[in-house]
Amino acid sequence: MSTDEQILEEFTSKEYEHGWSVDFEADEAPLGINDDIIRFISAKKEEPEWLLEWRLKAFKQWQKMTEPNWANVKYPKVDYQSIRYYSAPKQDKKPKSLDEVDPELLKTFERLGISLQEQKRLTGVAVDAVIDSVSVATTFKEKLSELGVIFCSFSEAVHEHPELIKKYLGSVVPANDNYFAALNSAVFSDGSFCYIPKGVRCPMELSTYFRINAANTGQFERTLIVAEDDSYVSYLEGCTAPQRDENQLHAAVVEIYAAKNAEVKYSTVQNWYPGDKNGKGGIYNFVTKRGICAGDHSKISWTQVETGSAVTWKYPSCILKGDNSIGEFYSVAVTNNHQQADTGTKMIHLGKNTRSRIVSKGISAGKSQNSYRGQVEIMKRAENARNFSQCDSLLMGDKCGAHTFPYIDIKNKSAQVEHEATTSKIGEDQIFYCQQRGIDEETAVALIVGGFAKEVMNKLPMEFAVEARKLLALTLEGSVG
Amino acid sequence: MISIKNLHASIEDKEILKGIDLEVKAGEVHAIMGPNGSGKSTLASVLAGREDYEITEGSVTFENEDLLELSPEERAQKGIFLAFQYPVEIPGVSTTNFLKTAINQVREARGQKALDAVHFLKLMKEKMKLVDIDQALLSRSLNEGFSGGEKKRNEIFQMAMLEPKLAVLDETDSGLDIDALKIVADGVNTLKTKDTATIVVTHYQRLLEYIVPDYVHVLYQGRIVKSGDKSLAFELEEKGYDWIKEEVAAI
Amino acid sequence: MIKDAPAILENIASTFKGNKAQKSALDMLNEVGLPHRKSEAYKFTPITSLLEKNIDFQSIVADVFDADKLYDEAGSHLVFINGELDIEKSTIADALKFEVAEVSEGKHDPFSLLNAAYAKEEIRIESGYEEPVFVYHFNSNGFTNPRIKVNVKDGHTFRIIEKLITPEEQKTFTNSYIDFNVGKNAFGYHTKVQNYNAETFSHETVVAHVSRDGQFYNNTFSFEGAMVRNNLTINLEDENTEGHMYGLFLLDKKSHVDNNTSVDHTKPNSFSNELYKGILDEKSTGVFNGKIYVRQDAQKTNAFQSNNNILLSEDATLHTKPQLEIWADDVKCSHGCTSGQLDEDAIFYLRARGIKEKNAKAMILKAFAIETMQHIKVESVKEEVQQLVDLKLG
């Protein structure tokens, strides 16, 4: 075996760190999906009638839709009737504070490195912890509410702030937007809601941590972020799942609304279970994320580090409606073994002087397929719109693929759009140079990949950057081709 | 310090080195000269452990240890430094970050504690003066967008930081103007001690006016065909390589 | 491809007169169908509905041969009238007429199949001429399917210049197919000048197969047409091969030009270079879709692609979709595309030197366009393109 093969072998046999699961007694819906299941979920959450109607309508529409097949990914047909659409760890009563939360649940999150005990947390981050279908705890709620910031689970928001939910739910991603969004709209179980009132700069990072625990269960969370005029918030999302032989479905929806002068920064470190080295198991990550810069001078910035999931289908997008609004997308997507990722962004320029910037760094190793798919659309009224896109791919080994599909549609002559893409191999010369200075091969690869992804990594909030860097190094350890 | 015996090396079945014998002791400076394509850079790369070359015969011992058994990083950790003819660019990785990683891995291999940020920076400041290198340059991506002179100075700066026992300078003088050449040579001379050795690989005699060799070897067609003291370098400068070629042809 | 628009296929079925090979192409076509409204490959050119709306597939119109349209250039001239080689008007004797042979590729490509099924004949041209060969298609019928196969023998250099001429007052649809087999160490050059009119609809397929050490060049210059779709595919089938694609689409009125190019690197050490430039004025639409495939065996591939565009009018539309698909790891590939308007600073600079605004603009646009013209080697074609550029840009 050559050194290269050895290293590849070593690398591909790397275990997923968060592959364990915990046996909770769970409150579950039967397998499958139909009107009754939706009623069951809605009833569990004691939802108002209008929301149930909204769900049922979405379900009707979903039944008429067909699963999209244009993405550059292949996976066996999902049997939607063998998925469980609701599973919640049983808790005797609804906990009023963290002290009442089942200590086992808290331990689960501790084990993931997420402490829900406020005193143990970095003071800069408030966390909403979601396990399977429900939110189990949200930290720093009181402190935030002093500023008028609402940060709570989606279910809670439905009860406490129905007027806001009614106004914004589905306003950015309509229930029938696409197949997976429609499914989510029908069966979503929980998620986070953030509301930043006018003029408030949220003093801490808001974060949701998603964990799939139960088997055969899909996760369908929904996140809604509303930033009023002149407000600012930075939001973080993290995810892991146990190691299971069967594929599990994650179909989330994230909606962001940014009013005049508002700025929302949304960061994701996605580390769902990617399946084993033979491609068995893993999460299907079919996610719709979209933000609207509704007000003038507003800004939405997406940053994502994607290392997990067996199949990823995800295009965080910005609708730049307000004049002078700004959309950004920074992404590092790493695929290894048999992972497949089709990810990118859409920047829809509607307003005048709107700007967008796309930086995508794809790293493919093992037998994986990594695709960037992006769309820049300059509509007729978008005077002086600007876009710059940069997509770079790095290949490690000769069994993987890197694909780039940028779509650029321009209907206004004043648009200035630039797109650049490169694909290259991690250089043997670079590795040798590092080695000659006494750096071993694995560290050399981590160093080179870190450099390649730096522009995106620098966009992550401090709290996430360290984790993301570690994750990147871990995912690609020794994978030289 | 290093002993090379009957070394044969080939790339893609083409033999480049056809039996090299060379003995370098601590405190010595050896110059390896020769026309283009004679195998000079191959020799430097083989000593550093580049895997593109296959060693078909011979041995290399470094401080009584079989060098050929070691990986490139192990060789570096044991004190072999190669100043590259074409230093490699690594986008997004600053020289500082790069060197910090390197030094700490070398220290780890030698059973020393990692340097903390304060001591590392102190060491860096000290060595920067040696090659007149600017802090701003060290914060930029390694070798990316550096001028030829900056790259070469950066190589010597790295050498100063890593304090090798045996430094192999591969055409370090190429692409340098006379001022840069002096700075580089001064750096190398300052780093020289009675415990270290230097192999200077070059095509021109110019560098050897500043880094004075104890021995000069002429490499031609994969063999050392002539050895002498520094006067040999002057002779080559004056007469070119043709007479060497003729001598070899005559044999 | 979704089966659709049986209306067209049914409509023309009664005119089918093909041989056995053509019948099997027809069967495959019926299986594949024509592009659907949602077909990714025709996303910006709804070809099926455009043809349905505009074209009378069965209309037969007297021929429109016009000797003035021929290039005044030494070389061989091949004149096709409504898809058939007119030997009397042509100056080449050994371009041979054949029956359409069994379709061996493009079995999923509806327009290649459509051509194979309805072509009246298959013309095979072999290299061996010092001078370029000029191919003219005078098409006045509603629906024409010129079909040509070119063989560039080992070590040969062969240039083909192709041109379609249609009447101004007649709606026509030309569905052409030309296939180049470029032998070992051979050079194939193919140049097209597309200066059609508001009634011309065309779908033009160019396929090249390049053998070891061979090179293929395509130059496509588009100036006008109701709907022009260019499908250019270069298959680099062996080591040390090169593919070159250069294009200019300089459009105004309601012209619609869709350039769909693809280069497939299958073996090590191959090279491709692509440069397309678009200048869009008035209500024109330009589409560029450039695909680069680098297969697993194609190590040490270098592939470069660039598409630059300038929009001159509020009503012009541009769609550009570069696409890189790479399965080999030791490759250097890059693509870039830009879209913008005229550089105001540059115009101001020229005006400050006393040049009229109109001239300043024309000067800058011509400079922008000229880069795509450097590979035209035939003088009269170069002149023609230059004249058309001058005419369009004033």
Automatic annotation (TrEMBL), chain A:
Query: Which Pfam families does the record match to this protein?
Result: SUFBD_core, SufBD_N
- Positions of the SUF system FeS cluster assembly SufBD core domain: 210-452
- Biological process annotations from GO: iron-sulfur cluster assembly
Residue span, SUF system FeS cluster assembly SufBD N-terminal domain: 135-202
Q: Which InterPro entries match?
A: Fe-S_cluster_assembly_SufBD (IPR055346), SUF_FeS_clus_asmbl_SufB (IPR010231), SUF_FeS_clus_asmbl_SufBD_core (IPR000825), SUF_FeS_clus_asmbl_SufBD_sf (IPR037284), SufBD_N (IPR045595)
The family annotation for this protein states: Belongs to the iron-sulfur cluster assembly SufBD family.
Matches recorded under PANTHER family: FES CLUSTER ASSEMBLY PROTEIN SUF, UPF0051 PROTEIN ABCI8, CHLOROPLASTIC-RELATED
> What is this protein identified as?
Iron-regulated ABC transporter membrane component SufB
> What's the source species for this entry?
Ekhidna lutea
The opening ranks of the lineage are: Bacteria, Pseudomonadati, Bacteroidota, Cytophagia, Cytophagales
Automatic annotation (TrEMBL), chain B:
- Gene3D superfamilies listed in its UniProt record: P-loop containing nucleotide triphosphate hydrolases (3.40.50.300)
Q: Does the keyword Nucleotide-binding apply?
A: yes
Instruction: Indicate the segments forming the ABC transporter domain, all copies.
Output: 2-246
What would be one Pfam family of this protein?
ABC_tran
Q: Which SUPFAM superfamilies match?
A: P-loop containing nucleoside triphosphate hydrolases
Give this protein's Gene Ontology molecular function annotations: ATP binding; ATP hydrolysis activity
Keyword tags: ATP-binding, Nucleotide-binding
User: Any one cellular component term from GO for this entry?
Assistant: cytoplasm
Which family is this sequence assigned to? Belongs to the ABC transporter superfamily. Ycf16 family.
Q: What is this protein called?
A: Iron-regulated ABC transporter ATPase subunit SufC
TrEMBL record, chain C:
Q: Which domain of life is it from?
A: Bacteria
InterPro entries according to UniProt: Fe-S_cluster_assembly_SufBD, SUF_FeS_clus_asmbl_SufBD_core, SUF_FeS_clus_asmbl_SufBD_sf, SUF_FeS_clus_asmbl_SufD
Provide the GO biological process annotations.
iron-sulfur cluster assembly
One Pfam entry for this protein is SUFBD_core
Q: Where is the SUF system FeS cluster assembly SufBD core domain?
A: 141-368
According to UniProt, the name of this protein is Iron-regulated ABC transporter permease protein SufD
